[in-house]
Amino acid sequence: GLARTVAEGQQDPAAPILVLCTRSGLKDINAAMRSVPAAPVIEPTIQALTKVIYG
Predict the structure, then answer these.
(1) pLDDT of 6-54, one tens digit each?
(2) Would you say 26 and 32 are in contact if contact means Cβ atoms under 8 Å apart?
(3) DSSP helix/strand/coil, 31
(4) Where are the domains of the chain?
């Protein structure tokens, strides 16, 4: 899909893009969300991230 949208001029080729490979079943995001715990909401700091990762 990404190559097609760039070729058709629908996407700026220099823009940041996230490509999600869905062969693993992630097309059903609700099913994926039910299979893992919710991600914690943290402050946008390295210290907060470090605390979540290392405790």
Answers:
(1) 899 998 888 898 887 767 666 777 887 888 888 899 999 999 999 999 9
(2) yes
(3) helix
(4) 2-54
Instruction: Report the alpha-carbon distance of residue 18 to residue 2 in Å, rounded.
Output: 10
| Contacts of 52 by beta carbon, 8 Å cutoff, 6+ apart | 40, 42
Distance separating alpha carbons of residues 43 and 45, to the nearest angstrom: 6
Residue 15 one-letter amino acid: A
Asked whether the whole model's pTM tops 0.70, one would answer no
Question: Is residue 2 within 8 Å of residue 17, measured between CB atoms?
Answer: yes
* DSSP secondary structure code for residue 40 in this structure: P
Distance between CA atoms of residues 20 and 26, nearest Å: 8
